[in-house]
Design goal:
This protein is α/β, with parallel strands linked by helices. The chain is built from ten helices and 13 strands. The strands form two sheets. It has a seven-stranded mixed β-sheet. Strands 1-9-10-11-12-13 form a six-stranded mixed β-sheet, with no helix packed on it. The longest helix has 23 residues. The N and C termini lie far apart (86 Å). The structure holds zinc ion (ZN). The site of zinc ion has 5 residues, from loops.
């Protein structure tokens, strides 16, 4: 065998080792998308013309990038892994910028989008995936995301592949780990770990010096705390929260303190017999929380969400 043949064989073996692959923990992980053709869809609120909409694709570290769409507090984001075998995009977020993201990846890196990962089944994060799927991307989600996508008539891509608890992707020799966490912000949450970069996608359950949104839409308190505890155990330095700017584990520890404190205060006030009209005036916020982005508009709504949760999870005296 000539040295050229040896090199060719080694190159071939390396290419085989690095071939893009998905390992789902579900035996029947492939979705028959044809079964859902013609399904009912709501109008796509992210599809309107948005030439002036800010958008970006910036390097985080090495081959790891972060895309954003939208301005100011309305910014949505997701991590993007660029490899020689194609890109992996988390949550395209808007139909009106998904085509730009696909073209930007092609223009700068000369690859297509191989995989799209959904963090959870909410339209403001997963819209636009249909554009990437039509261009050949494989869309991956937790199995619990399929029902709300259908039931809520979300006008995005039906996932191609599902998983139950864990799914591993190898792309360009790099590992991406998808993990289901407890119901927290929806029952379809997927955490996405990039071990080679100590980076985590923790959309909407994690915050970055920002208040959780509104009245906690699609909220499960216990699972939220469980998820933040899971985040605290991960070896990560960068946490993309799907909005604003990337965070650290210290930000998530502060968020956990806030959530536990808010829950305890609301529970104590309800147990003392206060009505909503009394209660929301008596919740106290720390100086740190008062400095978080969105405090003025969100703190009473956060209290309302917690009041609903507490009211639905106690029996009272009789
Ligand atoms: Zn959400």
């Amino acid at each position: 065998m000539t040295w050229k043949a040896v090199i060719f064989l080694l190159w071939g073996a390396a290419a085989v080792c690095q071939a893009a692959s998905i390992e789902s923990d579900m035996a029947d992980s492939i979705v028959d998308r044809a079964a859902y053709s013609g399904r009912a869809l709501l109008p796509d609120f992210t599809a309107g013309p948005c030439e002036a909409n800010p958008r970006s694709l910036d390097q985080v570290k090495g081959n790891l990038y972060r895309h954003t769409t939208g301005a100011g507090l309305a910014v949505h984001s997701g991590l993007v892994l660029i490899t020689g075998e194609g890109a992996l995009v988390i949550d395209p977020a808007m139909s009106c910028t998904a085509g730009w993201l696909r073209d930007e990846i092609a223009r700068r890196f000369h690859v297509g989008v191989t995989y799209v990962v959904y963090t959870h089944a909410h339209a403001d994060h997963i819209s636009g995936a249909q554009i990437l799927q039509q261009s050949g991307a494989i869309v991956i989600a937790n199995r619990r995301a399929l029902e709300p996508i259908l039931g809520e008539k979300i006008p995005t891509a039906i996932p191609d592949r599902l998983f139950d608890q864990d799914l591993k992707i190898v792309l360009g020799g790099e590992q991406v780990l998808l993990h289901r966490v407890a119901p927290s912000h929806s029952d379809s949450m997927t955490m996405v770990l990039f071990p080679g970069y100590k980076a985590l996608q923790c959309t909407d359950v994690c915050e970055s010096g920002t208040m959780p949104y509104n009245d906690f839409l699609d909220f499960y308190y216990d699972g939220w705390i469980e998820t933040l505890d899971w985040v605290s155990r991960q070896d990560v330095e960068i946490v993309d929260v799907g909005h604003y700017h990337p965070a650290t584990k210290a930000d998530e520890a502060a968020l956990r303190d806030y959530m536990v404190d808010l829950h305890q205060q609301v529970l104590d006030l309800v147990r003392s017999g206060q009505s909503w009209d009394q209660l929301y005036r008596n919740v106290r916020f720390s100086d740190e929380v008062r400095r978080w982005i969105g405090f003025d508009t969100m703190h009473t709504l956060n209290t309302l969400g917690m009041y609903r949760w507490v009211s639905n999870h106690r029996r009272g005296e009789w």
